[in-house]
Amino acid sequence: MSLRITLSLAAALTFSAGVAIAAPAADEPIQPIPAAKVKDANLVELGKKLYFDTRLSKSGFISCNSCHNLSMGGTDNLKTSIGHNWNKGPINAPTVLNSSMNLAQFWDGRAADLKAQAGGPIANPGEMASNHALAVEVLQSIPGYVDEFKKVFGSDKVTIDEVTKAIAAFEETLVTPNSRFDKWLKGDKKALTATELAGYNLFKDSGCTACHNGPAVGGNSFQKMGVVEPYTATSPAEGRVAVTKDEADRFNFKVPTLRNVELTYPYFHDGEAATLSKAVETMGRIQLGKNFTADENAKIVAFLKSLTGEQPSFKMPILPPSSDATPRPTPFEK
Fold this sequence. Notes:
Elements: H1 3-13, H2 41-52, H3 64-67, H4 114-123, H5 132-140, H6 143-153, H7 160-171, H8 180-185, H9 194-205, E1 222-224, H10 241-244, E2 252-254, H11 276-288, H12 294-305
Helix pairs in contact: 2-7, 4-7, 9-12, 11-12
């Protein structure tokens, strides 16, 4: 069995529940993204409201969508995100789109799944700066939410476990199928231009698919940044070693998905690559030992842009109003 096929199968096995897995497309290291299958529409709708609700933050100003903006490729297009009291985040916000396909969440993989990830920013003093008890108190004080939680979970007592489960259920629906590249994989050979196809072949032949493979074109392994040439980061993030405490994991990061990559600038965990062409140049040099020509770079960038799929489309939620008992936000407190 070839390395390419082995990598593709390994990627498929890490594909999270909630999204059906399509059959591998021929002998390609990348597979099409299938549409999400909603198992519980009420749970997803509740999660959507929570995703957009700024009342989960201490300031009443920050929501999940603040850093993972669904109008901006599931990111904020900043080098590092802005948290409570204009706190500068330590790392670039990865896209939430297709994140259900990741083998773990966060750059260092410290959260096993989307549910585990959802609770982190709420209680992080540099992000939403609230805490789980306060977030639950806020939701419990809002009659509209109490009714929805009872409808979904069968109890009018709100818990943080239910909150994170609902947010994760909504995030699992945020997949982006039917990119032009997916159409090409499915047999529409006119879906890609000659330049894009040349870029894909160069992408494969250069070794990029050793890490960027599977339906998400990444997200299914941890790899060292700076294999051939050391990378000088502008972020203090140490990578996977922060979780495993194994020095061998220093500067190992979760490989980012390249789906919708033209929308998710700037790039890398420190956001240092402002453009896609700069990201291609840097990764070719430090990971593969290749100095792509301007023409080669342009062809790879053209291919990468063909990975932009259909963006999530839904009716914006109307959030239930606070009650007289709802704790008020404190946006100017540290």
